[in-house]
Each structure stands twice: as C-alpha cells, then as structure tokens.
Amino acid sequence: MKKRKFGFVMSLLLAASTMLAACGGGGDEGKDDAGDKGAKTDLKVGMVTDAGTIDDKSFNQGTWEGILQAKDELGVEAKYLKPAGTTEAEYLKEIGNLYDAGYKFIVTPGFKFETAVYQAQDKYKDAKFVIIDGNPHKGDFKPVIKDNTVAVFFAEHESGFLAGVAAALQLKEGEAGFIGGMEIPAVQKFNWGFQQGLKYANDNLGTKITIKAENVIYQGSFDNAAAGGQIAAQMFDRGVDVIFAAAGGVGVGAINEAKTRVKAGEKVWMVGVDVDQYDDGKYEGDKSVVLTSAMKKVDAVSFDMVQRELDGKFPGGESLTFDAKNDGIGLPEKNPNLSEATISEVDAVFAKIKSGEIKVSSEQGSLLK
Question: pTM here?
C-alpha cells in the first residue's frame, strides 16, 4: 500500500479526535530492528498479532505495515510477537514480553484484546497502548480508557457503502453475496454498508443488483480459509456474481475459490476488505478477481499514533473515529478492474458522504431482500 505522508497524518488525527460514549511461551518473535534511515529516537514500538499471521493480507498486516513505515521514516525500533493462541492470558503474556524487552509503545489490532489491554494499561503504567477496533473493559463491555491508552475505530459502514456502489456500477446487474468472519460490529457494519451501497446504486444510478438472505453468511472465525472457499463455492453455485468478504483468512479462501473458477472460464468477482487485496486476487499476470476493496486505513492510523507519541501529543484516554470526513476509509487509489466512469461516480458519492449529503447508517436499517 502507498505510504501516507506526515501532512495527511496530522490533518487526519486533528480531525479525528472525537470522544465516544461508549503466545504463551510458544509465541513467535517478529523482527526487532531500528529504522533503516538510522535511529532518530529510542522509542520501541511493539505489536501483538491477533488471530492469523503478520502477512494475513488483512488487519494484522495493515497494522504492521504502518509500524514498519514508522520504523523506516521515524527511526523507531519495531517488533511483533505472535501469541500461541487468542486468549486473554496469551495476549497478556506477549504484551508482558514486549514490555520486558523495552517495547513500551504497544499496538493491538482487534476487539479480542479488549480485556487484555484493560489489565495491561494498569499493570504497565509507563507504557502506551493503542487498541484498534476495541475499547478496554473488564469483561462487562463498559469502556475504561486510561490516559496511557487510545482506542481507535473506523466507519466500516461507509467503506462498505462505497464498495457496494462500485460493485453495482461495474456489474450493472446480477447477484451479490457477503461473507463475514465473526459476527461482530466491525464486520456487521461492512455488511450493512455494502447492502446500503447496492441499494443506493439501484435507486439512484440505474443498477439492478440483488442480494438474498441465504447469501449473507458469517463463518464464525477469521482464519478458516477452507471454510471461506466452501462458502464462496456454494454462493457461486447459486448464481452469485460478486462476493464481498470481510473475513480475514476466511476471505482469502473465498478469493482463492474465485480465482479457481475464473481460470475455469467462469465470470465471478470478489470485493476485498481492510487493505487493497487486488494482488491476492491475481490469477494470470496482472489480472485479478478483486473488483475493489473496502479499506480501513489501518496502516496510516498505526503510523499516526507513533507520530503523535513522538510529537508529545499521544491522545491518551480518547476514542478516535476514522471515517470519510477525515479520509480514514475509502477504496484503493488504483482500481484496475473499475472503469473510469465507475471511479468518477464513486468519487462523487464519496464526496457526498464526506459532506454529509449521503448518510450511511451504522445499523442494519433498510437492506436489500
């Protein structure tokens, strides 16, 4: 993904500051390096991965890429640890291992870290924590964000909306499907936004895309690629033309199924998530089954948090929301499978979301049948 520059960093964060109401011993060690341009700071930035791997083409990878950018451009040291599992105890163990190694700025991607960070922010008071897509709590879902912690959220529904509009405009007519990982708010909002985007295109832009209840499925995990492939195969067999997969490794399995079918002469498409997944969909040279991707600019945000810490402006105690208004979500800068006409129309829709003319619901609302 293209790196974001500091001007974007500061404008993004200044606009984004908004308060919301609301492993083990077998862990794998990641890289432990100083910045390529020579150390400019003694800050050590650590990350504990969620389910999946550092190259999962999704949330872990996007978060780590932002930290690597901080290593390259800001001179911090960077390291990640992969827990043996995904329990609170396993997360806490790797957080402790990072802390003991001097990594006192720790980034955790995903809601599964909520209770672990809740404990860590008190146990390691001189450390800083960034939790993405989650609020620290003790198990009661009542947010407790201490001054050494920042919680980061995204407007997934807006990103999903844009992807829905783009898919509808490009295909004009046909059947759509959605594969989610775990049925949690961040994934649900992608689904709801996508369906609203399809409906908007049908109502306003002359498209005829349908989506049936049987083709909206939450697999229940983020790492079962085989299950993702099976679900995608069933949808394609039912006549689905395009699937939006917001499911991490499960989605990668769905993309692989689409590649197999396209190689066999079928015409099916995928919509990627979180990061630009165009390369994951390549099946012949530069040809890809990925129409576009509903992106959360996780890499920019993880980089931004490090920059803020170095500037003495770490937004501790706050929840930040990144959306269309501060360019925290969107489609990839390059979309080879979208026509210029589609891109132009989607850009116009994005501008309307940004201005507030189009309001995308973060709840289920009125969806397609």
Answer: 0.84
Other CB atoms within 10 A of residue 86 CB: 18
Report whether 242 contacts 201 (CB < 8 A).
no
Q: Distances from the Cα of 145 to the Cαs of 12, 39, 138, in angstroms? A: 21, 31, 11
Query: How many H-runs (helices) and E-runs (strands) does the chain carry?
Result: 10, 15
The position carrying tokens 């201490």 is 146
Top CATH class, 6-154+298-326: alpha beta
Q: Lowest mean pLDDT: which of 23-32, 87-96, 143-152, 273-282?
A: 23-32
What tens digit of pLDDT does each residue of 29-82 get?
454 555 444 446 899 999 999 877 787 767 888 899 999 999 999 999 999 999
User: Domain boundaries in the chain?
Assistant: 6-154+298-326, 156-296+330-355
Query: Both tokens of residue 52?
Result: 């999946």
User: What pLDDT was estimated at residue 323?
Assistant: 97
Tens of pLDDT, residues 209-229:
999 999 999 999 988 999 999
CB atoms < 10 A from the CB of 75, how many? Answer: 18
Which CATH code is given to the segment(s) 156-296+330-355? 3.40.50.2300
- Encoded tokens for 164: 């829905």
Cα dist from 225 to 26, 140, 234, whole Å: 23, 31, 14
Q: Residue 206 has which token pair?
A: 């002359």
Place 306 in a pLDDT band, splitting at 50, 70 and 90: very high
CB atoms within 10 A of CB 144: 15
Tally of CA atoms within 13 A in the half-sphere of 178 that contains its CB: 32
Which pair of tokens denotes residue 62?
Answer: 């996007």
Interacting residues of 140 by C-beta distance below 8 A, sequence separation 6+: none
Instruction: Check pLDDT > 50 for residue 197.
Output: yes
Q: Residues with Cβ < 8 Å from 322, sequence gap 6 or more?
A: 12, 16, 152, 153, 154, 155, 296, 297, 301, 328, 329
- Identical topology for domains 6-154+298-326 and 156-296+330-355: yes
Residue 8: φ, ψ to 5°: -65, -40
